[in-house]
Amino acid sequence: LVLQWLFRPDPLATVPVVGEGNKASRRKQFVSGQANALYSEGYKKFRDGLFRIATPRSTESIVISTKFVNELRNLPDDVLSFDKAVSETMQAKYTRLQTEVPALAHTVKASLTPALPRLNASVADEVVEAMRQELPQTSDWTEVNINYKLLRIVAMASGRVFIGSELCRDERYLDAAINYTVDLVAAVEVVSRMPVWSRPFLAPRCEPVKKVHARMQQADEFLRPIVAARRNAEAQASPDYVKPDDMLQWIMDSQKKFGEKNDEDLANYQLGVSFAAIHTTTMTTTNAIYTLAAMPELTPMLREDVQQALSASGGQFTSLAMQKMRKLDSFLREILRYYPIAATSFNRKVLKPFTLSNGQVIPAGVVIELPAGDVAFDEDLFPAPHVFDALRFYKMRQAKDQAGSGVKAAEAVANAQFVSVGASSLTFGYGRHACPGRFFAANEIKMIMATFLLDYEVRLPEGVTERYKNLEFSGQSVPDPTKTILIRKL
Ligand code: HEM
Asked: Domain 90-341+377-425+427-489 class?
């Protein structure tokens, strides 16, 4: 039996590998700065098939061509698990990130997205107020660390919807919403660098992991009295009590569907939604503003687009007005394409073996990924992919308008919007777990960008001649958070 087990056929034996040496040394290459280059090498060589890559996870990852997306999409959660993949990536065993929380995605889909037309005005108010508070109000050019400022602006505007107007500017909420993710990512980095066998001993004892646990405790202590007050007010059934219209309340109200939640769960959900929403939205907006600073010629065109859309709505950020900002939408979609925040998406842990249509068996235990970053630079999909073309997707949508109906036209438009999800638009993932918060993110980013375009001018500091390069590590690519730009109020 031992011999049989040792010599059992490996279904992945024919799948090519990227990187040099055995799994441990390939993992080392991955964590020491070569991850993005390894993914790109794999995509160039095996674009239409599959390749193996050693990541910090204990098992190898299989990167699969987007040719197979339709068959992958149809596989159920007990074959391909989103939660288990996130749990491995985020070292949840040690960081205690809760991943199996269907209530979160459900609340975003069922309560937040349909409420957007109702919530737009209050989110826009918060955006304007947060920008007034955080950005310089002078017509002199002033140097700002825009990434830091945007973190606070996004946390406040998102907080208005997540936790309500009274608390979204509370420094304790802002600290948790912003820094939980920072601490979590730092802990994940440290644990990922530990040899797999040593993690059970070393990880719980290392400072970054302890810091994440302490932060979870703080969030619980902050939220407990708020939840208790809401429960009390509801129990008293006073006719004057108006139930808050925010995510915390929607989750509290969904208890019947998802089972009783204790206060600690609710605090974890708040941290979970901040983790999913705040840094992703901030990175996208920072990428946009760094690009605007380096390409000032885009400002008048985008400003006019925003002015036209808002003049039709009397200056209000209605859903329709934001849909009309088609050039801004195209610019932001190009930002997602040109600055992919991760080399891959649709990371799924394989729980049961399955066979692809080319006959390749994918065994249980591995993680599969789709090559989101390299697809975005594939010249068969995007002509002149290394050119940043702010109107690339605007032109695509116009071409569709002219072409009328038809499969090709439908495909073009399906891939041409900021919120698009498709085989060539993988920033928000794919299939049933594709980001449910992208509609909220799109509105929030448009509100911030539109207000910025109308009220401010931006440029790179003296002596800086190129857009800041993004920082790449472990398959991620983030705008450099240490850089500054110059802005002035109009
Ligand atoms: C530009 C901003 C954002 C980006 C780039 C982004 C990206 C992603 C990605 C790549 C996934 C995984 C999808 C997959 O693997 O198929 C995801 C999932 C998720 N996102 Fe976002 N996201 C953003 C904003 C938000 C916001 C604002 C919220 C909340 C309001 C949110 C809530 C979620 C949730 C709850 C999930 C898990 C979905 C599930 O469990 O099925 N995201 N996001």
From this structure: mainly alpha
